[in-house]
Amino acid sequence: MARPRSNAAVREKLAKVCPDVPEDLPVAPDHGNWFYMLDSTAPTPPGSRSSSPAFRIHQGFTPSDRVLSLIKKFYNTSPRSTRDTGAAQTRSTYPALYMGVWRRSSLVPFITADATKQKPATLDAMDELLRAVDEEVGKRVLQLLGANFPQVAKERDEIIKHTWDHAALSNIQRSALHQRAWLCLALRCGGGNVVHIDMNDDADQYTVLFTYGDFKMGYLVLPQLNIRIPLQPGQLLFIKTRILAHYVYHFTGIRYVFTGFMDATLCKDYRKYASS
Ligand SMILES: O=C(O)CCC(=O)C(=O)O
Question: What is the CATH number of the domain that holds 166?
Answer without folding.
Answer: 3.60.130.30
